[in-house]
């Protein structure tokens, strides 16, 4: 039997808003998602983490994520560039990347899917909506989807 998201599998959240990050983590905890959570606030930091370079060259400090939640509007290197870099790397492109953003811009949606995003979700504006969205992410990505190990 294939497990979906193993409880020890790292989840990387790339999010510059501390409030949004905390809401995601709290929702995960309430839903019983106990996976190790890693947090990057900027695109360049996320790329260093994912490619295990710079301050993240110690693999213990930056384990390969099994799932990435990616905000698009980040300071510096934005989420679109982060997504493109991940998906053009043969070793990393199998990691599911869920774009989590406020943007419903048609061009952003097109671009993200053309880069290889695994899903594109709009961030809700209220905590209740956020909880519902996190529950849907848990049900799909942590329970139903079979992910590469």
Outline the structure in words.
The protein is α/β, with parallel strands linked by helices and 149 residues long. It has one domain: Rossmann fold. The chain is 39% helix and 14% strand. It is built from five helices and five strands, in the order E-H-E-H-E-H-E-H-E-H. The chain has helices at residues 18-30, 43-50, 79-87, 106-115, 127-144, and strands spanning 11-14, 37-40, 67-70, 97-101, 119-122. It has a five-stranded parallel sheet with strand order 2-1-3-4-5. Helix 4 (106-115) links the parallel strand 4 and strand 5 (119-122). The longest helix is centred in the last third of the chain and has 18 residues, at 127-144. It starts with 10 loop residues before the first strand and ends in a 5-residue tail after the last helix.
Low-confidence spans: none
Shape: globular
Strand order of the largest sheet: 2-1-3-4-5
- CATH architectural label: 3-Layer(aba) Sandwich
Instruction: Write down the Rg.
Output: 14 Å
